[in-house]
Write a structure and sequence with these properties.
The protein is built from four helices and seven strands. The protein is α+β, with helices and mostly antiparallel strands and 162 residues long. The protein has two domains: 53 residues; 83 residues, PH-domain like (Roll). A four-stranded antiparallel beta sheet has the order 1-2-3-4. A three-stranded antiparallel beta sheet has the order 5-6-7, covered by helices on one side. α1 runs antiparallel to α2. The mean pLDDT is 87. This is YdbS-like PH domain-containing protein.
Amino acid sequence: MTPSGPFDPDGITWTRVSTRLVHARLITAGLTLAVPLVVGVVLALTLSPWWWFLGGGAAVVLLESIVVIPRQVAAIGYAERDDDLLIRRGILFRTLVVVPYGRMQYVDVQAGPLDHRLKIATLQLHTASTSTDATIPGLPPHEADRLRDQLAARGESRLAGL
């Protein structure tokens, strides 16, 4: 990929997250949209055809999710540099977060029931700034453990965090 401004710095090799994150997000979207879809269809068949708008709207959002979610997951990446960690995400609204190792306070690894079943985890970096969204979802557990330990060690070596 050719560098495109601030979101693709020169000399950076991005590490992608697991494609199992696509499955997790599609399952979540499907379960969330199943309720309005079923309710809309049942009410349209029993009460009024106007309820097709609810079921149809949920179906459209579900189809859009099937197209967009794989692209969103493919846009998530991270890169470790000597002094900081880069995290990027987004297709239309792109974000690049740079977290200096010395500013980290602690590193969390989380996995809910669905994440555990799909063998993925989320790594979250906590800094002094409450507005920092330094999370990397969809990591294989062994990579999340490795990254957590490495980031903690780098933070300790900078003597400013952790």
